[in-house]
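Feature request, filed as a ticket because there's no other form

It would be nice if the structure record came with a short human-readable summary line next to the tokens. Right now we just get the raw output. Example of a typical job, pasted below so the devs can see what we mean:
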Amino acid sequence: MTDRHVFDADDTIPNYLIDVSVVLIIISTLAHYYLRHLNNYVERISVELAEKKTAEQNYRMLFEQADEGILISEPEGKILLVNDSACRMSGYNQDELTAMNVVSLFHDQQLRDEPLRTDLLDQDVVVTRIRNALTKKGLEIPVEMRSKRLNDGRYQTFFADITEEKKKEDEIRYISFHDRLTNLYNRVFFEEEMRRLDVKRQYPIT
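Raw output as currently delivered:
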């Protein structure tokens, strides 16, 4: 019968068994370390994605519910995105607007007199202008435009219909230049005209 050797306290554990045990301990420790950090990373990414989704939903809600018209366009003028207010003001639907160029919303003469200042937008300047925008029916409405360049290079424009404000300004101007009883031009008007003519005499067009 074959004798079986039993290790006692005085026996020495083979070196290869010690090496294997050390390797297994190291692997187990590293696995635990990386799993713990992987779980933390996944949890952090999940939180960031959730926050980003919430931010996008909030932005979308503000975009759609804003009273001002909002449009996003390429530097070349191609309209990419509009909100409901922009459609309501212009009379176009979203598909029609996103098939257009921004310049289509203005008369050619107006653009020649006062071109769109994309050069300032590219310098990260916020450009505010009052222009007459064309509706689908061909009507002109006065709008205040505020445009800026986004981080991705696209342009964002907010525009508000200021028709009522312009009417009030015209009414105030009319009252200030006309007599209330006769509706004829008053003294203020003639004084203003004299100043205007005097300026022309000082700086004649050559």
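Something like this underneath would help us a lot:
DSSP finds seven helices and five strands in the chain.
The CA atoms of residues 21 and 27 lie 10 Å apart.
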